[in-house]
Amino acid sequence: MSERRGYYTDTTDEQWALIEPVIAAWKAQHSSVSGHTGLYAMRGIVDALIYQNRTGCQWSLLPGDFPPASAVKYYFYRWRDDGLDQVICELLRCQVREHAGRAEDPSLVVLDAQSVHAAVNLHASTTGKDAGKKVPGRKHGIAVDVIGLIIAVVVMAASVHDNAIGTALLDKLATTTSTVSKALVDQGFKNTVVEHGREIGIDVEIVERNPADTGFVPQPIRWRVEQTFGTLMLHRRLTRDYEGNSRSSESRIYWVMSSIMIRRLTATSAPTWRGL
Q: Does the reported pTM lie above 0.90?
């Protein structure tokens, strides 16, 4: 790492120490038959992914002092397929919650979906148009706890109704943690989600907007998911969906959330867009 000129997105030693044991354990389980340990440091791979998420650059435009794009891409896809991205995010989330004086797993979550434009190279079968917001692309659905940490992620075509997003998120919650007993959703979600939640033991409450309110009015607790979406959008790779595989889009969100949490755990702030 000392041979690189360094970027502000690079992990510090303290931040890397939070991730390294998990990746080292994965690496030990996936050793080469020939005993080859690999040419590139795992920290360099992770730093390249965080850099790309923040800047939004193409694979081929990763700076030359990172490991080759082919190597970064290889590990991104392997970790996606093995679920390591989600494992790291879950472990960090437990630590952040403990630091906040909370139990590792939440009992209350907030669900929402955000439509984002898709890149022109994506196959039409994986995208659609949000009929309400008139956005052609994909929907990113997330479930967060009351402090805005992501518990589950689902990515589908923007034409998919919020009910399908909500149902998929509830199913993921049921397999990820057994502690969630209540979920808050907005009026875009309908009774289908409420009924599905009842079937799997999660009380889904549709938070209705006060008819007297005009403009944007934050709703108690439920505003946390809006705050999380806003933070994710500071990472340019997420402002538009570039991934051919929707699972890759989910992986991007997990990695962005992980980079946010390692900064929170080490009390490290990220530079704003001003002056960049």
A: yes
Contact 1, 20 (CB under 8 A): no
- Cα dihedral across residues 196, 156, 142, 258: positive or negative: positive
Condensed to tens digits (0 to 9), the pLDDT of residues 37-64 reads 667 999 999 999 999 999 999 999 999 9
**What does residue 183 show for φ and ψ, rounded to 5 degrees?**
-135, 135
- Closest to 96 measured CA to CA, from 273, 263, 219: 263
In 3D space, the residue among 81, 152, 55, 171 whose CA is nearest the CA of residue 113 turns out to be 152
- pLDDT at position 23 is 97
**150-157 and 182-185: which strand pairing?**
unpaired
**Which residues are 182's β-sheet partners?**
108, 203
Cβ atoms within 10 Å of 167's Cβ, excluding its own: 21
In one-letter notation, the amino acid at residue 84 is L
Dihedral pair phi/psi, residue 128, rounded to 5°: -170, -175
In which residue are the tokens 């967060």 written? 144
Q: Is 162 exposed, middle or buried (0-12, 13-18, 19+ CB in 10 A)?
A: buried
**High-pLDDT (> 70) share of the chain, %:** 90
Two tokens, residue 104: 């590792």
What residue type is 206 in one-letter code? I
In angstroms, the CA 176 to CA 254 distance is 14
